[in-house]
Specification:
Helix content is about 35%, strand content about 30%. It has about 280 residues and is of the alpha/beta class. A 6-stranded mixed β-sheet has the order 6-7-8-3-9-10, with helices on both faces. It starts with a strand and ends with a helix.
C-alpha cells in the first residue's frame, strides 16, 4: 500500500534524508521519534501536502502527481495543525463542503461518529478545543472511508477513555486486510499495544523501519549487577546505564545469545528502545 524510496526533503534548516520504508495492506505502522525528528514531514509528503525533492513515494501502486485524485480519495488524515477546515463554519458544514471531493463520503457516517465522539455537529470549528478538533478530523476521515489513515499525534490530546476507544477503532479498521494506518505519536505505550511495524526517525534520518517480530528478535533489555552485564560481549551492548539498584542495558540479540541466569532479560518497550538506541547511537 505504501512504499517510500530514498526520499529527501529540505524545509528551511530541516533536512529529511534518504527515507525508505514500506507498509502492506492490513497493518498499523507506528512512526516514532523526538519532536523535530521528521514525523509530520513524512505524513505531509504521503498526504500530498509536500512534494519530495528526490526519491519516490508510491501509494496504492501509483504516484503523485500522476494519480493525485485517486490517491487523495483513498487517504484520510488527522493533522496536529490547523489544516483545511474553516473556523466560521460548523462541523457539519465543513464536512459537507469537503465531503464533496471524496467519492465514498457518507454524511450519515459523519453524523454518527460525531454523536459517538461527543461532538455537536452544529458547533463552529473555531470553538473546538484541541482534543475536539482532532476528534472532528477523525470523524470526517472515517466518514469518507479511505484505505489509508495518516494520523499525526492525535492521542496526546485525548482523554484516557477516548484514547482507548480510538485505539479500538483503528485496530478494527484494519481487520479486513484492505486498510492500513500510519500513526505518529510520542505515546509509545499505545504502539506497544497495536503497532505491527515501527519506523524510527531522528533529526531527519531513518534509524530503522521493521516489523515487530523482527524487532523482538533483534533486541533485549538486561538488568542486574554491573559486573554481570559487563560479561556480555561488548559488541552486543548498545548502551548501558547504572541505576540505584541495578545496571540496565539494551543489547543486540541473536539466535545463539546466552545470558547469565542472574540477569533479568526482557523484550524492550518502545520507550526503552528509543531511549537506549539514541543514547548508544548504535544500531
Amino acid at each position: 500500500m505504501v512504499k517510500v524510496t530514498d526520499v529527501k526533503k529540505k524545509l528551511g534548516g530541516f533536512y529529511l534524508q534518504d527515507i525508505s520504508f514500506s507498509l502492506p495492506e492490513g497493518y498499523i505502522m507506528g512512526l516514532v521519534g523526538k519532536n523535530g525528528a521528521g514525523k509530520s514531514t513524512v505524513l505531509k509528503l504521503l498526504s500530498g501536502l509536500y512534494h519530495q525533492d528526490s526519491g519516490e513515494i508510491t501509494l496504492f501502486g501509483t504516484t503523485y502527481p500522476r494519480d493525485e485524485k485517486k490517491i487523495k480519495n483513498n487517504i484520510g488524515f488527522v493533522l496536529s495543525e490547523e489544516g483545511i477546515f474553516l473556523g466560521e463554519m460548523s462541523l457539519l458544514e465543513n464536512a459537507r463542503m469537503y465531503g464533496r471531493y471524496y467519492e465514498n463520503y457518507r454524511e450519515d457516517m459523519f453524523r454518527d461518529y460525531c454523536l459517538e465522539f461527543g461532538l455537536k455537529e452544529e458547533q463552529k470549528k473555531k470553538k473546538l478545543s484541541t482534543g475536539e478538533y482532532l476528534k472532528f478530523q477523525f470523524a470526517f476521515a472515517l466518514s469518507h472511508q479511505p484505505k489509508l489513515l495518516l494520523l499525526d499525534e492525535p492521542t496526546a490530546n485525548f482523554d484516557p477513555k477516548f484514547r482507548s476507544r480510538f485505539l479500538h477503532i483503528i485496530t478494527d479498521y484494519i481487520k479486513d486486510g484492505k486498510h492500513s494506518v500510519i500513526l505518529a505519536t510520542h505515546l509509545t505505550s499505545d504502539l506497544d499495544k497495536i503497532a505491527d511495524y515501527i519506523t524510527f526517525l531522528d533529526r531527519g534520518k531513518l534509524l530503522f523501519s521493521m516489523d515487530r517480530e523482527t524487532l523482538n528478535k533483534s533486541y533485549r533489555m538486561v538488568a542486574g549487577e554491573e559486573y554481570k552485564v559487563n560479561l556480555l560481549p561488548k559488541e552486543n551492548i548498545i548502551y548501558k546505564e547504572k541505576g540505584e539498584f541495578a545496571t540496565k542495558a539494551l543489547v543486540k540479540h541473536g539466535r545463539w545469545s546466552l545470558y547469565d541466569r542472574a540477569l533479568e532479560v526482557s523484550y524492550p518497550t518502545l520507550e526503552e528502545l528509543m531511549y537506549y538506541l539514541l543514547k548508544g547511537k548504535k544500531l
